[in-house]
Specification:
alpha+beta; six-stranded antiparallel sheet; three-stranded antiparallel sheet; elongated
């Protein structure tokens, strides 16, 4: 009888140990899954915040451009609000949490003989700038993340200067005989594009429209495509929005 009880007691202990081991394995797996899911959710949330912060920077530059083209100076800048307006300040700026760092880079743009933007070998267009808004953050000590928005802005607040051979001598104005005045027929300016539809269609979209900013693209159910901005040569409507 003693030996039988001993064997039964030993078997019970083994069963308990096996059960505990299985429970530990299941618990560790479940905890790991919860932690992994939490990390993925946090990374997704950070990505969304970073994109919104970058988009805000892009909208800020567009606002500055519409207010005064001379504010869009070449270089690496931070953004700040002053008197209800956006301005460049420092070389970077952060969101209210201090987690996301944003830099806004303004670069010169070159165009070839066909007035197409090229990376090199063209002529600098003083009335077009390349804007790169970059947002960086560190989700963990050994990991760095980054999102970028790239767009092109153009100066439509241009004043056409008429030069004469001798500015000091006024040009006489001929006297016309009285009679009915026929209004001049407006002549379209050659080389000016008012639609980015060809660009959008070429890239697989159904059509394209030039709008004022990225927000208008979203409101219209369209996608902002910076590559087509150079086709939007319309005052205050230089953002190409492609329709899926």
């Amino acid at each position: 009888m003693f030996n039988k009880k001993t064997i039964l007691t030993g078997s019970s202990i083994i069963e308990v140990l096996v059960a505990v081991g299985i429970f530990v394995i299941i618990s560790v797996t479940a905890i790991s899954a919860v932690i992994g899911s939490t990390n993925i959710g946090r990374l997704t949330q950070d990505q969304t915040k970073a994109q919104a912060f970058a988009e805000q920077g892009n909208e800020a530059v567009l606002s500055m451009k519409n207010r005064d083209w001379t504010l869009i100076t070449t270089g690496i800048h931070g953004l700040a609000e002053s008197g209800g307006n956006w301005i460049f300040s420092g070389s970077s700026d952060q969101d209210s949490s201090g987690k996301f760092t944003r830099t806004t880079t303004v670069e010169t743009v070159q165009r070839n003989g066909a007035h197409v933007i090229v990376a090199s070998g063209g002529t600098i267009d003083d009335n077009t700038k390349k804007i790169t808004v970059s947002v960086k953050w560190q989700p963990s000590p050994n990991r760095n993340n980054n999102v970028q928005f790239v767009t092109y802005v153009t100066n439509w607040q241009l004043t056409e200067l008429v030069k004469t051979s001798n500015p000091s001598v006024p040009t006489p104005t001929p006297t016309l005989p009285p009679g009915p005045t026929t209004p001049p027929t407006p002549t379209p300016t050659p080389g000016i594009s008012t639609s980015c539809a060809p660009y959008c269609i070429t890239n697989g979209y159904s059509t394209g429209t030039c709008r004022q900013n990225i927000t208008q693209c979203k409101n219209a159910g369209e996608i902002s495509t910076p590559g087509g901005n150079s086709s939007c040569q319309v005052p205050n409507s230089d953002t190409c929005c492609c329709k899926p």
